[in-house]
Amino acid sequence: MAMSTAQTMHPRAVAALWALLVLLLLGGAAPMRGVVVAQPSPNPSCGAQLSQLGPCARYSVPPMPGQALPAPGPECCSALGSVSRDCACGAIDIINSLPAKCGLPRISCQ
What we know:
secreted, Bifun_inhib/LTP/seed_sf, Bifunctional inhibitor/plant lipid transfer protein/seed storage helical domain-containing protein, Bifunc_inhib/LTP/seed_store, flat, disordered N terminus, signal
């Protein structure tokens, strides 16, 4: 019986793939060049909120074994603080639902 790729991958590789997926989702939410963007509203869309998390990108990839995760800088903390709870939870729910939609086993980080 063959194992799926996700079952045979090193946990660090799986975590790095999830981080890459998050970054791709964030990048996809950023406005495209040449597109006119409306003035910010008091409640920006979730995509607009997530697109501001670029300063957090380097903190979303697990460090090498034995290395400490660097503390996020003030730009990251400020950007993260501007993301609403509903937006953050919705993005996490979407990411967590993707393996099942792709026929892959659920990933547990516990």
